[in-house]
Amino acid sequence: MFNKVTKKIAPIGLMAVVLIAGVAAPVHAAAVKQGAACAKSGLKAKSGKNSYVCQVNPATTSKKLVWVTTDCVTAAKTYLATKKDSDSFTSQQAAAITKMTASVASWKNVVVLLDQKKAALETNLYPLWTDPTTKTMHKATGITAAITELTAKIAEITVKRDNALKQAAVTTVSATDKANWTKAAAGYSTSLTTYGRQLDNYSKISPKIDSDRARAVSQIATMQTQLDASNASQATVSTQIAEGATQALNLRTLACKAGI
Fold first, then answer.
1. Residue 50's beta-bridge partner residues?
2. Cα Rg, the chain, nearest whole Å
3. In-domain check, residue 54
């Protein structure tokens, strides 16, 4: 009798299993949609042509685990890489332009300082020689006056040296006078060397300032050209990169749309 009952129940149970199985499969398939909740991070599933992974949807602020398509994951990575490049370019360009702007300003300041230095040449005091009477340093006001006085001094001492040499060469002069005149000529020659070196140094001051100023002006022109070019290109390239990032964001939004 048990067997008869079992035989009657078995088809009914089998039918129930078939019905349950038939209902469960479609429900499971329907659950695997983008945005639908899933149980464990990293789980993978496939429905139709789409492949899914269980994770947080990168296009939303929600921290819940949901099914997302692999296309969504790829689009999210592409967007992040594009945005990183955009931010990096913007930051680097801004830093470069700031540096160039500072350099231009610095060179302009150099020009101002050199102009001030050039102007001060005619008001500064320049030591020339010690006055033998007062034992004080004789100074000239202004570089032009200093050069003029040194030139005159050198001419004066040159005459004295030449005269001493001439006196030392006279055949009738005594040995003592010859030695004194020779010694005097040597002293004058030493003075000429000292004053000549001093004159040479003073004569180089103004041309050196002019040369430095010309170089600074050239640097300003070169760097300003580079700065203008960088500003112009930054606007164009920044726009292009920003558009690329926006496009990548739009693609991510579409790829990560719920219900796919």
1. 47
2. 48
3. no
Domain residues for the domain of 178 are 100-238
**pTM for this entry:** 0.63
Name the token pair of 257. 């749309």
pLDDT in tens, 65-106: 999 999 999 999 999 999 998 889 888 888 999 999 999 999
Q: What is the DSSP string of 102-116?
A: HHHHHHHHHHHHHHH
| pLDDT score recorded for residue 15 | 32
> How far from chain centre, in Å, is Cα 171?
77
More confident residue, 112 or 4: 112
Q: How many residues does the chain have?
A: 260
Residue 145 has pLDDT above 90, yes or no: yes
Residue 74 included in any domain:
no
Domain-embedded: residue 230: yes
How far apart CA 238 and CA 85 sit, in angstroms, is: 11
Question: 126 CB contacts (<8 Å, ≥6 apart)?
Answer: 139, 140, 141, 142, 143, 145, 146, 202
CA-CA-CA-CA torsion sign (173, 175, 179, 180): negative
CA dihedral 74, 79, 85, 87 (to 10 degrees): -150
Angle between the N-to-C axes of helices 175-255 and 70-120, in degrees from 0 to 180, rounded to the nearest 10:
160
16 has pLDDT over 80: no
Q: How far apart are CA 101 and CA 95, in angstroms?
A: 10
Q: In the chain, how many domains are there?
A: 1
DSSP state of 37: B
